Amino acid sequence: MTIISILFYLFLVIACIQLAYYSIFLSFFGLSKPKKGKAYNIPVSVIICAKNEAENLTQNLPKILEQDYKSFEVVLINDSSSDDTLEVMESFAEKHRNIKLVDVKSIEPFWGNKKYALTLGIKAAKHDFLIFTDADCTPNSNQWITHMARHFSKKKSIVLGYGAYKKIKYSLLNKLIRFETLFSAFQYFSYAKVGNPYMGVGRNLAYRKAQFFTSNGFINHMSTRSGDDDLFINENATKGNTALCYSPESFTVSEPKKTFKSWWIQKRRHVSTAHEYKHLDQFLLGLFYVSQISFYTLAVILLIAGFQWKIVLGILILRIIILYLTVGYSAKKLNEKDLILLTPLLEIFLIIFQLAIFSANIVSKPKHWK
């Protein structure tokens, strides 16, 4: 058997793996309908940890305070800011009774550690049901708390939401950022639907205070700078205790990075936690990525060589069709429809971008938050 024929059979195996993954993403999320949950007014604590976010808080906090929800408090955590963040928080607290301030001072063992600041904020929260977002996020509607809170129940102690990024016209970087966010979302929602929730995003996430303290909070990964959201979910989320919330009213929208360099630094920090995921999750995510890059690489080699090119081209077209369907249905569900047309190009860029990030993180550790 020649080398080129071995590569062809390897391509067929990898193609089956890719088609299986995308079929799962399509059927379990793309074609699924969001569950409404039971509407009832449980008291909620909204937690926002901020470091040097005076401007964002001034702009976005009013949208949080205007939520149409009967009983909620807002816990504002000032994580040793060097700007006017604390002053902005205090000015809002003077006008709103439902704001609670937590001013975190730097101490040597936990300097710059967001998880330490968040732990103090969680302890200070009055209510058992906690909803997390960031200072640069704004709710998509005044029903955000309602939609997130209604997914809590006696069995469901964790709720995964969708944190979108603001759309900027005529910006390729903006499309790349939002495509990566969309891609990650339909992956973690699909895995959760299958019964294996492995991550969530701190821009829009909820869990019970009791869940946090029962599992000893962030103690098992406190030394890891990132991961207050995904590592906590990876460690604690199960098929039985996790609910999904992706109705449009429940989205949060964040300001995206404006330069490629700043996005690169952000993603390096985010990706750095993946090696601490459960072994099964590392294997499944790794298998998907390796099959992605291998699929395109082998397809190009086989097409250039002209070996079984009709079969290779047919499989390539089939995969692109399934990719379009998966991204298309998911994009409509998550209000990212303008990304559909460029899907294959954006996916190829994302594959290359992730490879560069993995390589960079092997060479040096990424910077911590702020």
TrEMBL record:
<keyword id="KW-0328">Glycosyltransferase</keyword>
<keyword id="KW-0472">Membrane</keyword>
<dbReference type="GO" id="GO:0016757">
    <property type="term" value="F:glycosyltransferase activity"/>
</dbReference>
<dbReference type="InterPro" id="IPR029044">
    <property type="entry name" value="Nucleotide-diphossugar_trans"/>
</dbReference>
<comment type="similarity">
    <text>Belongs to the glycosyltransferase 2 family.</text>
</comment>
<dbReference type="InterPro" id="IPR001173">
    <property type="entry name" value="Glyco_trans_2-like"/>
</dbReference>
<feature type="domain" description="Glycosyltransferase 2-like">
    <location>
        <begin position="45"/>
        <end position="180"/>
    </location>
</feature>
<feature type="transmembrane region" description="Helical">
    <location>
        <begin position="339"/>
        <end position="363"/>
    </location>
</feature>
<keyword id="KW-0812">Transmembrane</keyword>
<protein>
    <submittedName>
        <fullName>Cellulose synthase/poly-beta-1,6-N-acetylglucosamine synthase-like glycosyltransferase</fullName>
    </submittedName>
</protein>
<feature type="transmembrane region" description="Helical">
    <location>
        <begin position="6"/>
        <end position="31"/>
    </location>
</feature>
<feature type="transmembrane region" description="Helical">
    <location>
        <begin position="311"/>
        <end position="327"/>
    </location>
</feature>
<keyword id="KW-0808">Transferase</keyword>
<dbReference type="Pfam" id="PF00535">
    <property type="entry name" value="Glycos_transf_2"/>
</dbReference>
<feature type="transmembrane region" description="Helical">
    <location>
        <begin position="283"/>
        <end position="305"/>
    </location>
</feature>
<keyword id="KW-1133">Transmembrane helix</keyword>
